[in-house]
Hints:
The model has no long low-confidence stretch (mean pLDDT 90). α6 (127-133) links the parallel β3 (119-122) and β4 (139-142). It contains twelve helices and eight strands. It folds into three domains: 7-44, no CATH class; 56-148, Rossmann fold, CATH 3.40.50.11420; 152-262, 3-Layer(aba) Sandwich (Rossmann fold). The protein is of the alpha/beta class and 278 residues long. The longest helix is centred in the last third of the chain and has 14 residues, at 188-201. Helix content is 38%, strand content 13%.
Amino acid sequence: MNKSDTPEAKAYIEKMPEDEKEKYSFVSAKTGEGIWELKEKIASLAPKGNEKRLIADLLKPGDMVILVVPIDSAAPKGRLILPQQQVIRDILEAFAVSVVIRETEVASTIKALGQKPRLVVTDSQAFKTVSEQTPPDIQLTSFSILFARYKGNLKQLVEGVKTLDTLKDGDTVLISEGCTHHRQCDDIGTVKLPRWIKNHTKKELNFEFTSGGHFPSDLSKYSLIIHCGACMLNEKEMQYRLSQARESGIPMTNYGTAIAYMHGILKRTLEPFTDITI
């Protein structure tokens, strides 16, 4: 019951039987009364045991995970980006151990550890370097791929990446980012991805770019959509974009899946997920 600060509400509540009062939360947006208690009650109703996890369901207590975080011109000063933070938190909740390093330290770190890491998770841009340093008996994936699985779209993105091999001269590829940021001279979305795609396809392609909340309502002119990891978009928005692509018959993939595919290591990066095959 809201507006519990008003004289009318107070008089009404005063007359209620005690057992009836227990059925309600009395709140006031004006004074803040009861808001915290209401939030706690809502949180207590959340389903337990079946919630989706970023990485914790792949781990057991004591497992060690190496997280590869390049520090380049595009890295924010003095902090980790959101997907890195969230993966670290999920590892902690699994009672596992995260070791955060740069891409130049993978081989030496694996050698120095007292146990074989359960998994190596890297920024997709460093896939080639990290893959070369990670022994084949250690599983490897990326933050982008973990987020695609978390938001329920990895199967569609893996299927869509195969379109890279069928693109023709003159085709248009849409590269879409869920957030806005200051673009660096070697930006992954506008510079690195187009370069990798051209090298892979050997075709003369057109590229268009969107960022933030903008996503075209008409996708008919695109032959392929490559989306970022969508860490800044909620699941509902990402599912909406995926459904738009499906309904328009336009293949869609994401940064991590596309980069792994073009480097010839996609199968390896999907090994941690038993329900995904290529």
